[in-house]
Amino acid sequence: WTIRVPASSANIGPGFDVLGLALSRHLTLRVSLSPCPESDSKVTLSYHGEGATDAPTDPYKNLVTRVALYVLLSHRLTFPAAHVTVEIDNQVPFGRGMGSSAAAVVAGVLLGDALGDLHLSQERVKDYALMVERHPDNITAALCGGFTGSFLRMLEPSELSPAAIPLAEVLPAYPANAGPPQPGDELPPQPPRNVGRHVRYGFSKDIGVVVAVPKFEVETAKARGALPDSYPRQDVVFNLQRLAVLTASLGASPLDPNVIWEAMRDKVHQPQREGLIPGLSKIVNTMTPSTHPGLLGICLSGAGPTILALATPQMEAVGEAIKELWKQEGIEVEWLALEVDDTGATLNEHK
Description:
The chain is α+β, with helices and mostly antiparallel strands. Helix content is 29%, strand content 23%.
């Protein structure tokens, strides 16, 4: 099998925990099975690309294979009695606000689906992914592709809320050199069905995506910790107004840079994270369509520190401008010209 999952950017300005955009950088798994005696069965991981020096290759420590094992145990299965080889090629940087964990989780669910021959629907894949990654914005974009809006539906009292289940129960720790855990009478916590709801918005083919990736990480937990427990009503209204306009304006023809730039502004999460990301305020507030022709809008990508800009067609000029502003803060940056991935996650079997 080959499993391919795109990177993603969440929030896109005002759409905190709602909007997601799939991007043309990918996490790719190449999976093969070799028959062998059950006593010799094992899972072997190799890892190349972004994070290769940091990602564990023990299948009981790596997020991708731990998620796959969760899916298998949920169906009273475990890793197959074979030599399973998983070659991971990763283009999605860790801890940069480009959906690296969402890509790994979606890939893990699809790996479990393949190894167990489960034939899960896309909605059920999303359910399992949301038991691990509890925010639907990145998960939905990575799984479905394109420009998406998503939420978790209100659950009935009888249904299990993913947020109420400790992650350690979904992905328990395994000792070093663990053998395949055997399915027990009690299944792992099961996700409610169709828990995540989403739509795909139009996104003009004329829009290019620039991501400026600085050479430092921001932990998602720390970025979330910078947010307040409550907001002034005027700040919430500010974001709601812009969210409604932005989702329509990015698919419009002709594109209106002045509308899009203003619609990508935010008061709910970006100002609160400025202390974690030097230069953020200067970049998102001083780069405008009038100062940088071709720029449509600019924002923090997810929890950061990557900055995402939408542009047409001056992508190089926009990328270099962000790089120069960050250079003034003493921060080294790599910028990438990307496209929107309209396909989303794929699982292909090679016979």
